[in-house]
Design a protein that fits this description.
The protein has 320 residues and is α/β, with parallel strands linked by helices. Helix content is 43%, strand content 15%. Helix 1 crosses helix 8 and helix 7 runs parallel beside helix 9.
């Protein structure tokens, strides 16, 4: 039976993915880990948890041996906006941490490693209207550089050592459960919070900025579907484009105003505008659909309805 270690379980994706994986594989079969120990009680008490730094390979090895781990999901990363403020830290965590995971998986003859990439892997040379699966990857951020290198490194371990390494290129991820951690697409989460709390929002990208986005349930679905896909049917392995929806701040504002008519937005673009301008506005995910059956569930209207409903409940409980 598979035993999974989720590294970065305190993050935006990890905090929800681990609960989903425990429902699929069983609570005791999925070990959560993070540098932080102040995780929600639901994560701590629903299954095993270890305080762990991805840069400490010896400690990670000890945890894997203790729990008989044969699959690692590595979500530990410094994201785009924070990475521009601390580029050396981004390289250290995103690359040296990944090397630790891959080498450990190889040494322990593990079954699989899942490590996500991002639309940050794209850059000015990528077609902006519909980024192909196989295209020019010349990012302008340290985060993007590490994501491209991570994709190539994963593919290298597949071809050179036969290690099953797989992952997707995530668009911006939107969730009502956990705040994001310093990405350029974070406005699409913050806008919902401010719509409930203040009825207005100041956006750090301009009104014409169109970016690919995904609601968290589809994000979790993409991870679990790819993890369970037949390896022999995968022509690609790392960096699968996965698309769901694309919109501008104007379009998400209009969606919110249908439910909160008094909501308003203004714009004060900052350094994240240049990052957003280097990314495509949509993704061609034909490879993911053909190779492992990817098919998203949510569009903008369905997501807005669910986000506002859940955030209203949290706000009334004084949770933000």
């Amino acid at each position: 039976m598979d035993k999974i270690l989720v590294i970065g379980a305190a993050g935006q994706i990890g905090s929800e993915l681990i609960l989903s994986l425990r429902k699929i594989y069983g609570n005791d079969q999925v070990v959560g880990s993070d540098k932080r120990s102040d995780l929600p009680a639901e994560i701590i008490h629903s299954g095993p948890f270890e305080t762990l730094d991805v840069l400490n390979k010896e400690a990670m090895s000890s945890v894997c041996k203790k729990h008989d781990i044969n699959i690692i999901v590595n979500l530990a990363a410094i994201l785009s906006a924070v990475g521009e403020q601390h580029p050396k830290l981004a390289w250290d965590v995103n690359m040296n941490g990944l090397m630790n995971v891959l080498d450990l998986a190889l040494e322990m003859k593990m079954k699989q490693v899942f490590v996500p990439s991002s639309i940050a892997a794209f850059g000015p040379g990528t077609p902006l209207d519909m980024a192909p699966q196989d295209t020019i990857l010349r990012p302008t951020t340290m985060y993007g550089v590490t994501k491209v290198a991570g994709e190539l490194l994963g593919d290298y371990y597949v071809k050179r050592f036969g290690l099953d390494v797989r992952g997707v290129r995530f668009p911006g991820i939107i969730s009502h459960a956990t705040l994001p951690g310093g990405g350029t697409t974070d406005y699409a989460v913050a806008i919902y919070y401010d719509a409930i709390k203040h009825k207005k929002y100041t956006c750090f990208v301009n009104e014409k900025t169109k970016l690919p986005m995904m609601y968290m349930p589809d994000c979790i679905k993409a991870v679990t579907d790819l993890m369970q896909a037949d390896f022999s049917k995968l022509k690609h392995h790392n960096g699968f484009n996965v698309a769901s929806m694309s919109f501008t701040p104007v379009e998400i504002t209009e969606s919110i105003k249908k439910r909160i008519p008094e909501f308003s937005i203004d714009y004060k673009p900052d350094f994240r505008q240049a990052i957003a301008d280097s990314w495509p506005d949509d993704l061609d995910d034909t490879a993911a659909r053909e190779e492992w059956g990817w098919n998203p569930t949510y569009n903008l209207e369905l997501m807005t309805e669910d986000m506002l409903k859940n955030l209203k409940i949290k706000f009334e409980k004084g949770l933000f």
